Amino acid sequence: MLTVHHLGRSQSERIVWLCEELEIPYELKCYTRDSVTMLAPADYKALHRIGSAPVITDGDLVLAESGAVVEYVIAKYGNGRLALKPDHPDFAVYLYWLHFANGTLQPSMGRCMTLNRLKLADDNPVQVAMRARLDRAFDLVDARTREAQYLAGPEFTAADIMMGFSLTTMRYFLPYDLGRCPNIVGYLARIGARPGYRRAMEKGDPGMALLLT
Question: What does pTM read for this prediction?
Answer without folding.
Answer: 0.96
